[in-house]
Amino acid sequence: MTPQLPSRTDVLVVGAGPCGLAAALSLHKHGCTNLTVVDSQLASEHTSRAVAVHAATLDALDEVIAAQCIVDSGVKATGGKVWDGYRFQPWADFSVLEGHTKFPFLLFVPQHVVERVLGEGVHERGIAVYRSTKVVNLVPSELELGMIDVFFEDGQVVQTLYVVGADGTKSTVRTMTGISYTDPDGENTPDEAVELGVIADVTFNVHPTKRTEPLMVLPSGNFFVCIPLPSSSYEGQEVWRIACGVPTGVPPHAPPTEFLQGLVDAYGPGSIPPSARESPKRLEITKTIWSSRFITHSAVAATPFTRLRTPSGRPSGAVILIGDAAHKHPPTGGQGMNLGLRDAAFLGPVLAEHVRHSAQLTSPEECMELDAPLKAWAQQRHERALNVIRSTKASLSRMSCSDEVVWCWGVVPVNWMRVRDFIMWLMNVTGVARRIVPWELSGLMNR
């Protein structure tokens, strides 16, 4: 049965994933209590999807809900290692973040666990969440200053001052608003970067690495990542997240165990000599719990904030985009959900203050003058998204270098994989990499 929506609300959050829930919590925390959350799905997905939560994200969430609840459900990694084809090299030392954050580690926790914790917080605060309610259109109100009429598939209409689009890469809110969503560098992918890949949660017959550290393998022209997931989320099973590029062909929609095993053998821990592995036994997948495929393309919304206008040119309500509705990029570094959660957490105080002042508006001119703080928030989040797109593209390109000679400027022979491995070795010998990588991943320099 379709739920009966309120006819009016100050803020309508479209999307009840982690970003939408975090936005609702942040708004409520800062005094905006007349808000409604809707989602087209009957229930949230109980699959892991994103699994990394970084220090800057935990700091931001800790301002709106006790982040320790999420920390207690995950695996805290303070370092990791990389196999470059010849040796293991240290990957990072997150202890360098001590004194700069309450959470000086990289947390591995499934997305559905993060959603559960945020959902419990939303429920405890009495924030209404309506599911199986699909938005189909947004229309500026001609009758009331600063209002939007939001139409739903079942014919219901909700009037609101603000629509927060947290409805993913195929955002209906973004599409209906007419905001473009394109790759800031054009649609061309660098020749050396893999465009397709797979992710999966699996169990192994033996440990590919320690249960407190991620492992990265960098074969020629590809990458393979193996991450320990909390056994408490999988009924005591020791589960690992694997991610691997697929250099040729198109992977299945839900890759089966046989397909994944081939990647483990060809590109992953199975390709490491037995003498160097945690166990000399052949690494075999014993169960595939969940699997999917991904593309490494990027896109960013032209703006995460806009004010709609009526056909007569009168300013109407505001539309705000967060999370995947505002930006997407390669999965390297696990930055996607993190950037979206920070979008949401930092939106709360700005938008809540905007709501308080909106009640006093009497003219279109006042409406436009009031938008300055939201425009500043939007500009900052847009810049943060562009930074992440650039860094994840660069990381993907470095990770997937091929072991072959190319001619630069037609005269200089270069093997970029060997150059990368040498630089990585040099940075590890000097200790530079162990200090730089945590800062790049943590988000503390790109909140």
Automatic annotation (TrEMBL):
It comes from the Eukaryota. The keyword Iron-sulfur does not apply. Residues 8-231, 316-359 form the FAD-binding domain. This is FAD-binding domain-containing protein. One of its GO terms (molecular function) is oxidoreductase activity, acting on paired donors, with incorporation or reduction of molecular oxygen, NAD(P)H as one donor, and incorporation of one atom of oxygen. Its cofactor is FAD. It comes from Phanerochaete carnosa (strain HHB-10118-sp) (White-rot fungus). Keywords: FAD, Flavoprotein, Oxidoreductase. The lineage of its organism: Eukaryota, Fungi, Dikarya, Basidiomycota, Agaricomycotina.
